[in-house]
Amino acid sequence: MMRMLGAWLLMGGMALAEEGRPLSMETVDRVIEQHDRAVQACHHGGGRRGTLAVQLVIEIDAAGIVTVAQPADKPTPEAQCLARVARRLKFPSTGVTTRLAYPFMLLTR
Questions:
Q1: Which segment of 8-12, 19-23, 75-79, 102-106 scores lowest on mean pLDDT?
Q2: Domain 2-107 falls under CATH 2.20.28
Q3: Staple partner for 60: which of 68, 79, 98, 106, CB 3.0–4.6 Å?
Q4: How many CB atoms are closer than 10 A to CB 69?
């Protein structure tokens, strides 16, 4: 029964996490990739070509809710937009807080 539930959750797009351990970067990547359209909408262009890397400091509480999302460097319009997107994300609960610096990659449209 548990095996079927795990398979159902994976197929449903939810990322699983180990209880009592911080989220893995793989799990964080999976959740963020599911919201790539919102992430890429943060690229304001401004005549820049190529890929723009924006690093955010993110803190995810034990219940999987983003409590901190702020630019690691200066607050550009892209970083502020990404912080708003990140605050809306829901991660698997782990029972512990996860803190990380996440590199968002914005592509030229």
A1: 8-12
A2: no
A3: 98
A4: 21
How far apart CA 106 and CA 96 sit, in angstroms, is 29
Query: Would you state the pLDDT for residue 4?
Result: 35
Q: Where are the domains of the chain?
A: 2-107
Separation of alpha carbons 78 and 50, rounded Å:
15
**pLDDT tens per residue across span 59-77:** 999 999 999 999 999 899 9
